[in-house]
Amino acid sequence: MTQHSEVQLADGSRLHVRQTGPADAPVTVLLLHGWTLDGRIWHRQVAALSETARVVTYDARGHGRSGSLNRGAATLDQLGDDLAEVMRAIAPTGPVVLGGHSLGGMTIMEYAHRHPGDFAARVKGLVLVSTTAEGHAHTVYGLPPPLARLVRVAEQTSAGVLARLGDWRPHRALTLALQPGLRWLLFGYPCDPADVRLTTKAVVRTPLGAIGGFRPSVGAQQRLETLAALPTVPTTVLVGERDRLTPPTCARSIATALPGAQLIVCPDAGHMLTLERTDEVTSALVDVVQHAHAPSTH
């Protein structure tokens, strides 16, 4: 059974938290979602893990059912600090496995950069899904590079406009209109229409201020050096072969920076691996959790 609660952060922001699994489980698995999404994208992994582990997801500030976003707080720095606060509030002791999809993976990297002592003491495993440590350096949206540069300029310009719109959300009637574009941008093949609908509903629910506000920070992040300095823990990096936002080059650079990391490239898959390749992502989490619970084996 899922327990819903809130964590109030030091600046007064409220984050919506979901917890499943036994409270006394030996390992806590904390799963972070991507930009414009929410914790529901992990629902299949939560169901698979919750019999043996305590599984926690939360909606990042300005996303899902969490509180509104102050424009000045729309940074990866802030998200990294938020993760530190959430861990102190809901998992103050015991080993933790972190899983991050897209922005969630970048949040984990920022947490490691800003709170290295906490990371070294608490984190016993990592699963990084469809993410990057190099901002938009490798993002070409599946387009020829000259066209991708034009798209990026347009995206950055529109992000500045959206950031000033605060909590305004588009009407839900746009859900159907957005589905074809999001299906092309975020998914590979095959693709379950129900997954596209879930993703689209999350995007439509995200305030435009959050969609535009995080864009500069996301595009500028550079954390390969941070990854290279991390203590060695069981780590798996997954990416879709057809990912248009964080292509395989992103995952390879992360896996190279993390000694001993396992790299999995999922054929024909896109950016939404938690939905598209449920078994692969779940298996990676189960394996890392098992190693985290038995540190003497590695």
UniProtKB/TrEMBL annotation:
The keyword 4Fe-4S does not apply. InterPro entries: AB_hydrolase_1, AB_hydrolase_fold, AB_hydrolase_sf. Keywords: Hydrolase. GO terms for molecular function: hydrolase activity. Residues 29-282 form the AB hydrolase-1 domain. Pfam families: Abhydrolase_6. Gene3D superfamilies: alpha/beta hydrolase. This is Alpha/beta hydrolase. It comes from Phytohabitans aurantiacus.
